């Protein structure tokens, strides 16, 4: 789950990270009101759930009240990579002497939370990671001890080369680690971490993502969720025991199992079609799941044909077929469908579907070809 | 031989009185797996399907000599269950539970490594040595005893491939579903080493998917250490970046973890990558013919 910068800053502040004051505004009027009480320079920052805001013109420095209002007028409503800006953050500006990067991620290889820190912070950190990875210090943190003082201080020295600043930075990194673990984050990034000419350190931008599997124990984090239309569909599917991701093609897929669902999408592409989605209905022949899944697929206007691909393991194919028939009778949709069943009792299952007049096939390749053919008939 | 599990495995089922635990205990037993005990706190003394139930793993191990455990408890309790097994001296823990938080797994893997416990999963279908031991939720009837080792991050895609192998008369030594989570127990490299040392395994199928770089690391390991042929398939070639494809681990982030990079890594290691699952038996036959020529 992703959150906005302003939400990440709230969490940072709660854990005692040094974050400049800010005000969230939803309209130009709110910006005018907020600026009436301010004398300082501010940065007007678009709040969207996508990176690259600065380059898209969504972040502007304003030296006066009028500049702030003008910037907000430009930024609100702006489109950044398909996201419309509905909120801006007015953050107190600080003087920058140097920019640093500090981030935490869950690293699969070391099976640990890993700290990444660099003296080359700022917008180009991904370029730094790609071209000069040696400038990013990586440190896996032992989950049983956490980030120890001497470890954090040593990393601080690498960045700042001065023990006073290193100690300050160490405290920031340790707080970041604590909040990362306590909120079940998957990313917590401060970029940039800024050193001012008067030797103060500020976290002036933040990014956080969270582990979906841990949201059950993070009610405060879950309450921060702001989903767009596609994501709402995905969340709705999740609540029904389905795993759904919308894509841009026209062939709907309904599959049991995530790996097989991905392989099914790949197969459609391999034979010249475009998958409309990823959809894993999990294991079981429960007709309600098929009904829910079909409703999701048919609500996508791009979908011209549906490929159902089921491998019957413990759930026998004849049970799956009965579930499918019951579900399709319930929906009564005219959507062209091809069903592929394989595995336990496949013959019996296919016979049942044939009786119903549904196009059935035994292999994935055949199913993909047939689904593409059906979608082309619909398009023409 | 085989890897990890065989007819000498003495299995303990953690969460045996739950719906899934009870159902799958019955299936595993019917397959011929030697299930010696189950646990369920507060239900010690009961018997499920002829299997004695204990309150704790330690009691079960002491009474029955169980050396392997399988976990069916709900995700919020999975970490504790794995640790309980580890501290009771269980050698191999198989965690079926889906949806375990990553932070839990980071803590757990760190502790069990110190205890010397092996872990498969979580969020995995388990493993099977055909005709000897089925430890998991895999459909036993599609497997056949033989000489192909297979490991995979997914469930039904594994069955799909196994079904094709069996139909092509290519039996399996041990099939392992390592699970779809980003932080998990044994991974490709650990298993590759075991397959390489297993006299019964002649060739290995590696089924990968997008996300992480475990496939790339496996490719490097294969190039350096494997004498046995390896064939691969990668799921998720059409997946867009930033979207999680069902598995918590199947997500492409900022250009890394793509199918393209994985396929490139395998090509470099001389590992053929099937364009679709149905090509796998043919690729294996080609590879094996070269070895035996």
Which fold name fills CATH's third level, the topology of the largest domain in chain A? Rossmann fold
Average residue pLDDT of chain B: 94
Give the radius of gyration of chain B: 19 Å
Question: The biggest beta sheet of chain A, please?
Answer: 6 strands, antiparallel
Instruction: Write down the oligomeric state.
Output: heterodimer
Number of domains of chain A: 3
CATH class of the largest domain in chain A: Alpha Beta
Give me some keywords for this one.
heterodimer; A: 380 residues; alpha+beta; Dna Ligase, domain 1; D-amino Acid Aminotransferase, Chain A, domain 1; Rossmann fold; 3 domains; six-stranded antiparallel beta sheet; four-stranded antiparallel beta sheet; 25% strand; elongated; B: 293 residues; alpha/beta; six-stranded mixed beta sheet; 36% helix
Description of the structure:
The complex is a heterodimer of chains A (380) and B (293). With 380 residues, chain A is α+β, with helices and mostly antiparallel strands. Chain A has three domains: 21-92, Dna Ligase, domain 1 (2-Layer Sandwich), CATH 3.30.1490.20; 98-222, ATP-grasp fold, B domain (D-amino Acid Aminotransferase, Chain A, domain 1, 2-Layer Sandwich), CATH 3.30.470; 229-379, Succinyl-CoA synthetase domains (Rossmann fold), CATH 3.40.50. Helix content of chain A is 39%, strand content 25%. Chain A is built from 13 helices and 18 strands. Chain A has helices at residues 5-14, 28-36, 65-75, 125-131, 149-160, 163-182, 219-222, 229-239, 258-270, 287-298, 317-331, 346-355, 364-379, and strands at residues 22-25, 42-46, 59-62, 79-80, 83-84, 88-92, 98-107, 112-118, 136-141, 185-195, 201-203, 206-210, 243-246, 251-255, 277-280, 305-312, 337-343, 360-361. In chain A, strands 7, 8, 9, 10, 11 and 12 form a six-stranded antiparallel sheet that branches. In chain A, strand 17, helix 12 and strand 18 (360-361) form a beta-alpha-beta unit. In chain A, helix 2 runs antiparallel to helix 3 (65-75), helix 5 crosses helix 6 (163-182) and helix 11 packs parallel to helix 12. The model of chain A has no long low-confidence stretch (mean pLDDT 91). With 293 residues, chain B is α/β, with parallel strands linked by helices. Chain B folds into two domains: 11-120, Rossmann fold (3-Layer(aba) Sandwich), CATH 3.40.50; 139-292, 3-Layer(aba) Sandwich (Rossmann fold). Helices cover 36% and strands 21% of the residues of chain B. Chain B has helices spanning 19-31, 57-64, 75-87, 102-115, 156-167, 188-197, 214-225, 259-268, 280-292; strands at 11-14, 35-39, 47-48, 51-54, 68-71, 92-95, 118-120, 126-129, 133-136, 145-152, 172-177, 203-209, 230-235. In chain B, the strands form two sheets. A seven-stranded mixed sheet of chain B has the order 3-4-2-1-5-6-7, with helices on both faces. A six-stranded mixed sheet of chain B has the order 9-8-11-10-12-13, sandwiched between helices. In chain B, strand 12 (203-209), helix 7 and strand 13 form a beta-alpha-beta unit. In chain B, helix 6 runs parallel beside helix 7 (214-225). The radius of gyration of chain B is 19 Å and the shape is globular. Chains A and B meet through helix 9 of A and helix 4 and helix 5 of B.
């Amino acid at each position: 789950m992703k959150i906005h910068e302003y939400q990440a800053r709230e969490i940072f502040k709660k854990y005692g990270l040094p974050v400049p004051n800010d005000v969230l505004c939803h309209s130009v009027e709110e910006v005018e009101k907020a600026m009436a009480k301010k004398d300082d320079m501010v940065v007007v920052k678009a709040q969207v759930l996508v990176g690259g805001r600065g380059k898209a013109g969504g972040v502007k420095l304003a030296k006066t009240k009028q500049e702030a209002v003008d910037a907000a007028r430009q930024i609100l409503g702006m489109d950044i990579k398909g996201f419309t800006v509905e909120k801006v953050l007015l953050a107190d500006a600080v003087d920058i002497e140097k920019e640093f990067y500090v981030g935490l991620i869950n690293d699969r290889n070391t099976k640990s939370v890993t700290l990444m820190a660099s003296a080359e912070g700022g917008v180009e950190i991904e370029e730094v990671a790609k071209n000069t990875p040696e400038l990013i210090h990586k440190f896996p943190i032992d989950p049983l001890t956490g980030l120890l003082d001497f470890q954090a201080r040593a990393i601080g020295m690498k960045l700042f080369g001065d023990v006073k600043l290193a100690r300050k930075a160490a405290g920031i990194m340790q707080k970041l680690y604590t909040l990362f673990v306590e909120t079940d984050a998957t990313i917590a990034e401060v970029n940039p971490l800024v050193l001012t000419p008067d030797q103060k350190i500020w976290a002036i931008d933040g990014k956080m993502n969270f582990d979906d599997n841990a949201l059950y124990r993070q009610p405060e984090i879950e309450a921060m969720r702001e989903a767009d239309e596609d994501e709402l569909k995905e969340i709705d599917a999740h609540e029904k025991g389905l795993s759904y991701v919308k894509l841009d093609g026209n062939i709907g897929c309904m599959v049991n199992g995530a790996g097989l669902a991905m392989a099914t999408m790949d197969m459609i592409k391999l034979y010249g079609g475009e998958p409309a989605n990823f959809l894993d209905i999990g294991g079981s022949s429960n007709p309600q799941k098929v009904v829910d899944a079909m409703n999701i697929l048919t609500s996508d206007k791009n979908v011209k044909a549906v490929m159902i691909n089921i491998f019957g393991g413990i759930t026998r194919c004849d049970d799956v077929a009965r579930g499918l028939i019951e579900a399709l009778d319930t929906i009564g949709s005219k959507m062209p469908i091809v069903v592929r069943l394989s595995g336990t009792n496949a013959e019996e299952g296919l016979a049942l579907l044939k009786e119903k007049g549904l196009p059935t096939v035994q292999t994935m390749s055949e199913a993909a070809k047939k689904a593409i053919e059906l979608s082309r008939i619909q398009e023409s | 031989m085989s890897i990890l599990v065989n007819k000498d495995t003495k299995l303990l089922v953690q969460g045996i009185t739950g719906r899934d635990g009870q159902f799958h205990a019955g299936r595993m037993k019917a397959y011929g797996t030697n299930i010696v005990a189950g646990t369920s706190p507060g239900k010690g003394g009961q018997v499920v399907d002829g299997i004695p139930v204990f309150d704790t793993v330690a009691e079960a191990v002491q009474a029955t000599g169980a050396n392997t455990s399988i976990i069916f408890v709900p995700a919020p309790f999975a970490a504790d269950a794995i640790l309980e097994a580890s501290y009771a001296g269980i050698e191999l823990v198989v965690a079926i539970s889906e949806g375990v938080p990553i932070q839990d797994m980071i803590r757990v893997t760190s502790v069990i490594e110190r205890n010397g416990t092996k872990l498969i999963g979580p969020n995995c279908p388990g493993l099977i040595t055909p005709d000897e031991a089925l430890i998991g939720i895999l459909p036993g009837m599609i497997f056949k005893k033989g000489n192909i080792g297979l490991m995979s991050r997914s469930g039904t895609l594994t069955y799909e491939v196994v079904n094709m192998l069996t139909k092509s008369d290519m039996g399996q030594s041990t099939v392992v579903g390592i699970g779809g989570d980003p932080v998990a127990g044994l991974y490709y490299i650990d298993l590759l080493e075991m397959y390489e040392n297993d006299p019964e395994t002649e060739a290995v199928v590696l089924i990968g998917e997008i996300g992480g770089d475990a496939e790339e690391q496996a490719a490097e390991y294969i190039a350096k250490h494997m004498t046995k042929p390896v064939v691969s398939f990668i799921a998720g070639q059409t997946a867009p970046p930033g979207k999680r494809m069902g598995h918590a681990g199947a997500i492409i982030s900022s250009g890394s973890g793509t199918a393209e990079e994985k396929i490139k890594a395998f090509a470099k290691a001389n590992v053929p990558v099937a364009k679709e699952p149905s090509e796998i038996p043919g690729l294996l036959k080609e590879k094996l013919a070269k070895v035996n020529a």
